[in-house]
Design a protein that fits this description.
By secondary structure, this protein is of the alpha/beta class. The protein has one domain: Rossmann fold, CATH 3.40.50. About 30% of the residues lie in helices and about 30% in strands. The strands form three sheets. A six-stranded mixed β-sheet has the order 4-3-7-8-9-10, with helices on both faces. A two-stranded antiparallel sheet has the order 1-2. The longest helix is centred in the N-terminal third of the chain and has 15 residues, at about 30-45. It is globular. The model has no long low-confidence stretch (mean pLDDT about 95). The structure holds guanosine-5'-monophosphate. Guanosine-5'-monophosphate binds near residues 20, 27, 57, 127 and 161. Guanosine-5'-monophosphate (5GP) binds near residues 125, 126, 128, 130 and 131.
């Protein structure tokens, strides 16, 4: 997705540890027009799948997930990293190691929001080692919900997540694919071919 790649080039900052900081438009300040374009692209890619629900994890997955849900007129469900006191006992959960925070979170979903009749599109901001997406796949399995695909805004293709997800037979689409951060510069997969 050209405009996302251009925005990454313009505003992205490569940090140590292969972390891309995109606080200008996605991870802190959010550009709603760009999020809407991302949502439209996910609808182009997955819109025919009779999706009933979008699933993401708080907090940075919510913006692209929300726009996709708005365009498809389906609810957006986000996994909570801390169990809320208003949550009853009946929950699905998965342990997710956070790439950026280096801690393990227990991601929780109230079970009444996900069931065997759901056709789920999983959305997240980044794909690195695939921990977050694997956690969401696990939650869908617990709910016996069908996953129709995974939509990622920014995939770091040089890390193992994409292979890990595709090897499970899951339809994965990423809008910007990063091949490397060599010399602190973002190199996209298409550019390096
Ligand atoms: P994974 O679970 O695939 O290893 O990592 C994906 C999750 O970690 C995403 O939900 C995202 O929040 C965070 N993450 C991974 N890599 C990056 C990165 O380079 N930049 C930012 N901002 N977040 C990342």
């Amino acid at each position: 997705m050209k405009i996302l790649e251009e925005r990454i080039k313009q505003d992205g900052v490569v940090l140590p540890g292969n972390v891309l900081k995109v606080n200008q438009f996605l991870n802190h300040q959010i550009d709603p027009d760009l999020m809407l374009d991302i949502g439209k692209e996910f609808v182009n890619l997955f819109g025919k799948e009779k999706i009933t629900k979008i699933l993401t994890i708080e907090s940075s997955g919510i913006a692209p997930a929300m726009m996709t849900g708005l365009l498809l007129h389906v609810p957006v469900l986000f996994g909570r990293k801390k169990k809320s006191s208003t949550m009853p006992g009946d929950v699905y959960c998965a342990h997710v190691y956070s790439y950026t925070k280096k801690i393990e979170n227990t991601v929780t979903i109230e079970s009444k929001f996900l069931n065997k009749n759901d056709r789920v599109l999983i959305i997240d901001d980044f794909l690195a080692n695939g921990e977050a997406v694997s956690g969401m796949l696990e939650i869908c399995q617990q709910a016996h919900a069908q996953v129709v695909g995974v939509g990622i805004a920014i995939e770091k293709s040089f890390q193992g997540g994409a292979k890990r997800i595709k090897d499970q037979g899951v339809h994965l689409e990423s809008l910007a694919k990063i091949a490397s951060f060599d010399n602190g510069q973002v190199q996209f997969v298409e550019e390096s071919k």
